[in-house]
Write a structure and sequence with these properties.
CATH architecture of the largest domain: Sandwich
Low-confidence stretches: 20-26, 300-309, 404-409, 430-449
CATH class of the largest domain: Mainly Beta
CATH topology of the largest domain: Immunoglobulin-like
Shape: flat
Helix content: 25-40%
Radius of gyration: 46 Å
Structural class: alpha+beta
Distance between the termini: 124 Å
Strand content: 25-35%
Length: 449
């Protein structure tokens, strides 16, 4: 019979083992464990609160929630749907939180924009999402979640039945640049360029279909062979204005006239489904007609068109200023050496260069070079008579030619002394010979201005 003293101890050991087994059972080894334990959820919703039609943007929302937090951002894996256009960057991710049973859960929502191109029922297979959760006791747990299957329905209004190309948007605009002149006779070899721009709100440019324009010959009532058409590749671009997407398509056509005749481009209708009023609207590219005469472009009278030219005062002034500028540029090029010499003379460029070299040589104790620069500076300033009888010049020459009969203390020259000598040379007026107003042995106070 078991001693009663051991019964409480045995019960405690059993309790510890039970807690360990429960804790081990609740340990999350993978994403599926977190889902089965109710710590991680995923859901998919089609935001279809109103009628959606072909070509209209539709948003699929995938929401991932956890009672902990995300170690890294979740990522929706690539998927495809038949008869659906998806842009390259068609997913918007929103981080947030929500309260579940009094507890705060972290949440990430991925909104994916789709553009269905046909009516009918669309079935969405489970979509894979990469997730990484930072758990409380098991560290970071990563894996793949799958959404539930879903479906949505796209309709085609009766007004659009039989219309192949149309734009779905709350606002569409059309602009045409470059018009044909029906009353003018064009010459063979001339050309006209016409640019058509279509802009639509809440619609990417890729959903605006290309434009095709054909030229017909009035005489043969068929496709014209006397006009060549150069169709520049369409330009499509999107931009965002205050959170609203705006798509733009630009088409450019150049018509080159090769044969005489009468030509016409039939009008073209751009169909637009107004998603605000749910009505069908039309934008019209008007028809164009023109005549090409038998004369070639080079045979046209050069006076034609001059009667329409208007030479205003502003035009004449502009032409005069342009001609004057061209003349000045020509003269500056031809006389560039003379202009350079004048510039050096008025700015005293050579004196400044010699003065800088002189001071640099003094600083480096290169007295031979310094004496040469000083003499050149004096000659350029026509003051050579002054420096010949200057005491500092005598010192500099002795240093330059290694006269050892003078003590070093007497022949030392500083940069400041050289600057003082330069200022005195610049301030001497009318000194040309030794008969100037100073004696050969006159001493100069080099430390004064």
């Amino acid at each position: 019979m078991m001693n009663k003293k051991f019964i409480p101890l045995l019960a405690f050991i059993l309790l510890i083992c039970q807690q360990a087994l429960i804790s081990k059972a609740l340990a999350a080894k993978n994403i599926e464990d977190l889902v089965s334990q109710g710590k991680l959820t995923i859901s998919l919703k089609v935001n279809q609160n109103r009628q959606y039609i072909v070509g209209q943007a539709l948003i699929i929302s995938i929401e991932i929630s956890t009672d902990r937090w995300f170690a890294t951002g979740s990522q929706v894996q690539h998927f495809t749907l038949k008869n659906v256009v998806m842009q390259a960057n068609n997913t918007t991710t929103i981080n947030g939180s929500k309260r579940i049973n009094g507890q705060t859960w972290a949440m990430q929502t991925h909104e994916i924009t789709l553009y269905p191109t046909a009516s009918g029922v669309y079935h969405v297979a489970p979509i894979k999402v990469d997730v990484s959760i930072n758990t409380e006791k098991d560290g970071v747990v990563s894996g793949v979640l799958r959404t539930q299957e879903s479906s949505f329905t796209i309709e085609l209004p009766e007004a659009l039945a039989g219309i192949e190309d149309f734009i779905v948007s709350p606002q569409v605009t059309l602009s045409i640049d470059g018009q044909f002149d029906e009353d003018r006779d064009y010459a063979v070899g001339e050309a006209i360029t016409q640019t058509i721009t279509i802009t639509a709100s809440d619609t990417p440019a890729m959903m605006i279909k290309p434009i095709n324009l054909f030229v017909n010959d009035v005489a043969t009532k068929g496709i014209a062979d006397g006009v060549s058409i150069y169709h520049k590749p369409g330009q499509v671009f999107d931009k965002t204005n205050r959170g609203s997407l705006i798509g733009t398509r630009v088409e450019s056509f150049t018509y080159i006239f090769e044969k005489p005749g009468r030509y016409v481009i039939a009008e073209q209708v751009i169909y637009w489904w107004n998603s605000q009023s749910n009505t069908l609207e039309r934008l019209l590219i008007p028809s164009s007609a023109w005549t090409v005469s038998g004369g070639a472009l080079g045979q046209i009278n050069p006076l034609i068109g001059l009667k329409d030219a208007r030479f205003t005062v502003e035009t004449i002034i502009t032409l005069f200023m342009l001609l004057s500028l061209l003349i000045l540029i020509y003269l500056g090029f031809v006389k560039r050496h003379h202009l350079s010499a004048l510039y050096n003379k008025f700015t005293k460029r050579e004196q400044r260069l010699l003065r800088r070299n002189l001071l640099s040589s003094i600083k480096k104790n290169n007295y031979l070079a310094a004496s040469q620069y000083l003499y050149q500076y004096a000659v350029l300033s026509n003051k050579q008579a002054y420096i010949k009888d200057c005491q500092l010049t005598d010192k500099l020459n002795k240093l330059a030619f290694n006269d050892t009969n003078v003590e070093s203390a007497q022949i030392s020259i500083s940069v400041n002394e050289a600057k003082t000598l330069i200022r005195k040379i610049d301030n001497v007026i009318g000194v040309k010979t030794k008969e100037a107003n100073f004696t050969p042995n006159e001493r100069i106070n080099l430390n004064s201005d």
